[in-house]
Amino acid sequence: xxxxxxxxxxxxxxxVDSIKRIDYLCDQKFKTMTNxxxxxxxxxxxxxxxxxxxxxxINKAGYRIVAMKMTHLSKEKAGEFYAVHKERPFYxxxxxxxxxxxxxxxxLEKENAVEDFRKLIGAxxxxxxxxxxxRKIYAASVGENAIHGSDSDENAAIEGAFFFSKLEQF
Length: 170
Ligand code: GDP
Fold this sequence. Notes:
Elements: H1 2-33, E1 34-41, H2 43-47, H3 51-60, E2 64-71, H4 75-81, H5 91-98, E3 103-111, H6 113-121, H7 134-138, E4 147-149, H8 153-163
Antiparallel strand pairs: 1-3, 1-4, 2-3
Helix pairs in contact: 4-5
The protein binds guanosine-5'-diphosphate (GDP).
C-alpha cells in the first residue's frame, strides 16, 4: 500500500510543481504586458467641466485608475514638472496656465499604456489631432490642450512619483 502510494505522491508533487511553474510564468507574462502611464486633466478642461467626460473616455479605453487626485499646482510646482521645457519660448505661458486652476492627476494602467494613451489624447495641437481623440473633442489650442499624457515609460514613472507616494497607488 505504502509502496504503491509513493510513486503516486511523486507524480502528484511533479504535477503541483508544474502548475506552480505555469502560474509563475503567467504571472510574469501579465506583469510584462501591463504597464502604466501618467495623466493630468489640465486647468482649461477642469474650468469647462470636462473632467467627467474625459474620465469616461479613459475608462472606455480600458484603463484602470491606479491613483487619482484633484489638486492645484503652485507656479513653482508647475515649473518643476515642466522643467524640461525651461528653454522653450512658451515656458512661462505654460507655467502660468498650469497653475491657473485645479487639475486632476492620475496614474493609469493598461497593456501598452503610454503609447495607447498618446493615441487616445491626440496631437499636442488639437488642430492636428485625429477625430475622436480627447484633445480634438475638448482642447482649444496648442497651449490649452486639455490633457497631459506621458511620452515614455520612464517619464510615466517619474511623473507619477511627482504626485503620488507608493502608499497612494493601488
Ligand atoms: P505634449 O507631450 O503633447 O503635451 O507636448 P509637449 O511635451 O511638446 O509640450 C508640453 C505642453 O506644453 C503641451 O501639452 C502644451 O500645453 C504646451 N505647449 C507645447 N507647445 C506649445 C506652444 O507652442 N505654445 C504654448 N503656449 N504652449 C505649448
